[in-house]
Amino acid sequence: MAQITEELARDALKKCEQGQHPPLTARETQQLIYAWLERERMRRALHEIAEEWAGAECGEPLHAQEAYAIALAKRMYALAVEGPKP
């Protein structure tokens, strides 16, 4: 039973770009589907967090921790919106 690795994923993507079906096992296909579903779940959660922070932001943060948390939430939201790059 093979595990999906970055190399395997990139090779599969190349095959798809060439109009060919990549030689993936059922388990590898299942891993990719689960990973995609998990990524979507996390993207939605990050969107909700960013919306909450955007609504809570009222002027300048009082503490460094608040500034860091706001910047981190904004960065996570931006990454979620952009999605993974091949």
Question: Mind explaining what this structure looks like?
Answer:
- The chain has 86 residues and is mostly helical.
- It has one domain.
- The protein has helices at residues 6-17, 26-56, 64-82.
- The two termini are 24 Å apart.
- The relative contact order is 0.11.
Quantity of strands, as a count: 0
Low-confidence stretches: none
Q: Which quaternary structure do these chains form?
A: single chain
Strand content: under 5%
Q: CA-to-CA gap between the ends?
A: 24 Å
- Rg computed from alpha carbons, rounded to a whole number of angstroms: 18 Å
Main sheet attributes: strand count, strand direction, barrel closure:
none
Number of helices: 3
Order of helices and strands: HHH
Number of domains: 1
Shape descriptor: elongated
- The chain-level structural class is mainly alpha
Percent range of helical residues: over 70%
Mean pLDDT: 82
